[in-house]
Amino acid sequence: MTVTADLEELKAKQQKMWSSGDYGKVAWLTVPLADVLCDAVDLRPGSTVLDVATGTGHVAIAAARRFCRSTGIDYVPALVEVARGRAAAEGLEVEFREADAENLPYADSSFDYVLSAIGVMFVADHRRAARELVRVCRPGGRVGVASWTPTGFIGQLLKTVGKHASPPAGSQPPTRWGSEEIVRELLGEGTSEVTCSTTTVVQRFLSPEHLADFFITEYGPTLKASERLTDEGKQAFRADLIALAAAANRATGGSLTCDWEYLVAVATKE
Ligand SMILES: C[S@@+](CC[C@H](N)C(=O)[O-])C[C@H]1O[C@@H](n2cnc3c(N)ncnc32)[C@H](O)[C@@H]1O
Fold this sequence. Notes:
Elements: H1 3-19, H2 23-26, H3 31-40, E1 48-52, H4 58-65, E2 69-74, H5 77-89, E3 94-98, E4 111-117, H6 126-135, E5 137-148, H7 153-164, H8 180-188, E6 191-205, H9 208-218, H10 220-227, H11 231-248, E7 256-269
């Protein structure tokens, strides 16, 4: 098989994974990242914005609320449909479109800002996607990406997934985008400067068990991994997720409060 065929096979698997569970529910948790990203790039009202791997539309909607001409793309049709419904419910004009982050259907220099919140980090070919982000941004415009760090909570959760169910052949760890050194290199081509900062989003669940069950039921990567395991394997996986959440817990009295770390990288196109 050729490298291209392998990549297409990997992408099809990943697309299925993001179509599984109910990502719309998991997306509740990451709403604040969209506002942080809009502020990190210092979004100017009236400008054009592309939200790559928009999911249910967080960043595209946040940009439209700031009076930008906003577009969001994702390769999961059901998520794009939810995004359309959310924008319509707020009376916001946002163009949502099914498209591939690794092959954006836009001409060079089409947007003032090209953004992605914990989206582009999950593509099959990181280098190709990074080039696409920079390509469709206009000279002097900004590319802004938010990504889970390898050492933060979701980075560790994804590592736990890999420990129990090996990732598909040829896939790159998504948290590469959360490493300052790597993201500087990925976004460095064709940009004049890349600035990085690390921050956290606070999460609250009923208990560590609640978090584990929520992820196993709703979040594609954990759901698909659990499906591949034996009953014993499923139990061990759940126990590890509970242990991870318990170790990160700073609440008392049985509930769960934890901080999820992510890196925000902003590049200015040359
Ligand atoms: C963790 S979700 C984040 C969604 C959204 N950006 C947010 O902030 O909630 C990752 C998203 O990346 C999308 N995705 C992954 N690879 C993609 C690709 N090659 N093209 C388009 N979308 C992709 C998935 O469909 C999913 O919606």
